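Lab notebook page, bench 4
Experiment: in silico fold of construct C2
Operator: M.H.
Input chain length: 425 residues
Purpose: comparison with the prior construct
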Amino acid sequence: MRLNEHTLRRKVVGEMHLRRWPKISAPMQIIQVLRLVSREERAAERAMLHDLPQGGELAPFVNQRHAEGDLGEGLSFVWEQHSEACGITLFIRDPSADPSAALDWLERFPGQAIRATRMHIVADEAEAERVLPTMGFVESDLVSCHIGVTPGLLAAGLEPVRLWSDFRVGPEGLGVSLIAANGAIGNDLARLLQRFQELGNYRNLALMGLPVAQAHWPGLDAAEEALRQLATDVATPDKTDDALLESVSALSLDLISLTTETSYRMSATAAYAQLVEERLAGLAIRSIPGYPCLDDFTQRRLLPAIRTARAYTHRQDVLSARAAHFTSLLRTRVETRIENQNGRLLRSMERSSSLQLRLQQLVEGLSVVALSYYGLSLLGYMLKGAEHRFEFIPAAEIMGLLVPVVVISMWLGLHRMKAKVMGEH
């Protein structure tokens, strides 16, 4: 069929087939190294897939996050790319094969190893008991249990796979585990052991959040103390709003810096912890009397670390929220003070305007009096001159009658001019 495929269809389907191990059967050794790889090292990591030891052959692959191939007679490998890490797994099927060249190639991969393990797979528990003394396990830390315990397996009277490990780093720099297949072969054994390895890988990746939380915990202590001091300074009259705002801004920047440095690792820790729980449930573990169980070992060491990381994240979020709330309250306080200052300024301006209006009215009144006086003086000179020429003209009486007329005329004229000037503006 000719389909108009979505651009992500092949990638989504490919995700369902990632990280699958080849079939496994005893006897066999599996060496796996999980490395943290930076973005700058990704190109060198991929280049290593094309720089195989002599006799190595890379199988064709479509998915860019999974590859496999052969490294010689009885040797094969699987490469897996994770979000922040990569895993290389060597499968040594032939006990007589020389893995030195493959191990040298494995050591040359870029990145920093966060987990490296060697699994010895034997046919049954009897064989495992014979080789157990040579494993170098610390007896007090030895964990042993059955995995892959299903009702169908028990109903058939078959023994489930059993593992032994002390989960310590050995002299070679590898953690060692011993696996008794007890009849499990092929894909069933491969899926079970791959799940066991993923449990350890995700556990180590999850535990990376613990030292980060512990290292930055004093920073939260300092931020909390600074916030407490700010709450005290608010009630201190000597502290100005500018000084308080500068302090809370510095505190907010410190919290943002802490969040930026730790948020990715804390989020990754939570995600990896969820994967650890899923892998534990998928292993279908059954305890063996006299030995610590795998789920007890994992939970006893992992849960406190995860809770510490969660407590750090919660405390960081609470402090950030408190700092934001304090900033909001301080901003409201500053705005309220500004509004009060503006109100006082407006009232002062209103009083000033009222005083100016009264002064203006007083000046206008004085102006009317002054203009009326000068007007009457001019009229007085005219009437006195007329009285001197014409004796029948009563200058004094006429002056007395003209006083209210002149004053009213001056007042009306002045207000008319004022209205005209104000109307133009």
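Observations: The domain at 209-344 is CATH 1.20.58 (Methane Monooxygenase Hydroxylase; Chain G, domain 1). The chain is about 60% helix and 15% strand.
Next step: discuss at group meeting.
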